[in-house]
User: Which sequence fits this backbone?
């Protein structure tokens, strides 16, 4: 099990305060308002596959580290685009991970994995080449037990809300099955999130075909720009009926643009015909962010903006294994100028709510904290992806609190595909916040009772409110 002082300050007085503050958050239900867990996992509730397919194959944090040391993803079971030449022996994949476990020293991947092994599966054996088979066999035994099936773990994890993320083209069958089963876990629920990136990016291969599929799915004429917008509104409503309270937008940049309907229609027709150049494609994406903000004014979906990832930077990896396999790289992002057109149009409208994320730490204090501290529509999202680590979480609080305070942030967002790691990630965030608040208390900046209230808000109440999970407007 995790040491009771894990991640708390080393200074004795601050550590003592952190331990006390942590007690106000550690047992609160988990709010997971944004993530990428496959909803079919819970809808079907079949036993997890072997340990390798739970911990290694789908985890691009793990596979990219091993790939950086010359171990091809195919040897780790990562599916190839053509379906050939991929390792299928789970034990062989697990042994390869164990033999190279030292590569993960100091990384959050090691932290999460060891917490999951100990806290979820009760395995305290240190992973190594010599213990690979022992850990694999013990894990396999656990995975065969009913108490370790997805729905049972959902309940044990004390998850109150788990949001998954789907394309507008998803038929939401898994969510419909969960609803038909009347299942969300005792006191919990599983909802979807509207992620339209693949329908607003003309440079994404197959875009025109997906737009046509949107027309078929909705029964609307997407040959016109107005019909395209109507089809997107239709799918947003379907997502809302499936529980969605937010949308998610993962554009390369945070650029926004306000076009007239006539100019947007011209750009849409050009893109649909394959004639839009890179600048025009970016203009269309930028305009659609503002268009989605307009839609949010009407239907209440909270916008989440996740810019700054250069997708498929590793061309060879993309060509062999496709998207979301570890080939993306962070890039600097401008927010101050990029968001201004949208904010000029809607930034003070009380109906609008936007949660901003970044992969560029330098933007936290320079741009995002001042923006969140200056517009009622903006909230600052938790450190994400490459920044989702103990030290980055500490730096986040240190860099944004003096400008934005605590209550212009969204609380913790785990943003993960790895279902079993959700409790570990939330526990890390709660411990880091306890340590940061303990420092403020020890320095006389914040009274202890206010710090206790604040850590509960950060862990539970803020994400419920910001993502409109409490039923309030």
Assistant:
């Amino acid at each position: 099990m995790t040491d009771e002082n894990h991640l708390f300050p080393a200074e004795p007085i601050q550590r003592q305060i952190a331990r006390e503050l942590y007690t106000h958050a550690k047992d609160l239900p988990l709010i997971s308002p944004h993530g990428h867990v496959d909803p079919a996992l819970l809808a079907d509730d079949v036993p997890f596959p072997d340990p390798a397919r739970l911990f290694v194959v789908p985890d691009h944090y793990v596979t990219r580290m091993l790939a950086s040391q010359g171990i091809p993803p195919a040897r780790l079971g990562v599916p190839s685009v053509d379906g050939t030449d991929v390792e299928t022996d789970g034990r062989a994949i697990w042994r390869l991970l164990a033999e190279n476990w030292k590569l993960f020293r100091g990384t959050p991947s090691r932290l999460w994995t060891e917490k999951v092994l100990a806290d979820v599966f009760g395995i305290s054996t240190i992973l190594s080449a010599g213990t690979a088979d022992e850990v694999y066999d013990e894990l396999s035994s656990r995975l065969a037990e009913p108490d370790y099936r997805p729905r049972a773990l959902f309940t044990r994890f004390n998850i109150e809300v788990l949001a998954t993320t789907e394309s507008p083209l998803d038929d939401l069958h898994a969510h419909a099955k969960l609803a038909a089963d009347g299942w969300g876990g005792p006191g919990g629920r599983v909802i979807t999130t509207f992620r339209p990136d693949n329908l607003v990016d003309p440079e994404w291969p197959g875009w025109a075909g997906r737009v046509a599929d949107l027309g078929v799915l909705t029964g609307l004429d997407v040959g016109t720009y107005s019909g395209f917008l109507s089809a997107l509104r239709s799918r947003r409503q379907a997502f809302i009926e499936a529980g969605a309270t937010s949308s998610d937008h993962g554009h390369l940049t945070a650029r926004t643009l306000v076009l007239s309907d006539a100019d947007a229609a011209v750009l849409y027709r050009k893109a649909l015909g394959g004639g839009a150049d890179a600048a025009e494609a970016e203009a269309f994406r930028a305009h659609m962010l503002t268009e989605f903000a307009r839609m949010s004014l009407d239907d209440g979906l909270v916008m989440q903006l996740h810019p700054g990832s250069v997708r498929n930077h590793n061309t060879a990896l993309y060509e062999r294994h496709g998207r979301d396999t570890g080939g993306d790289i962070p890039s600097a992002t401008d927010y101050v100028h990029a968001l201004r057109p949208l904010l000029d149009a809607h930034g003070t409208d009380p109906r609008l709510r936007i949660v901003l994320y970044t992969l560029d730490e330098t933007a936290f204090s320079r741009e995002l904290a001042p923006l969140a501290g200056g517009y009622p529509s903006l909230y600052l999202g938790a450190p994400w992806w490459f920044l989702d680590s103990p030290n980055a979480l500490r730096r986040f609080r240190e860099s944004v609190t003096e400008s934005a305070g605590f209550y212009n942030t969204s609380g913790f967002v785990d943003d993960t595909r790895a279902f079993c790691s959700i409790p570990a990630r939330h526990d890390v965030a709660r411990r880091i916040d306890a340590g940061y608040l303990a420092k403020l208390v020890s320095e006389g900046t914040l009274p202890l009772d206010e710090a206790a209230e604040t850590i509960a808000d950060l862990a539970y109440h803020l994400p419920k409110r910001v993502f409109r999970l409490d039923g309030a407007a």
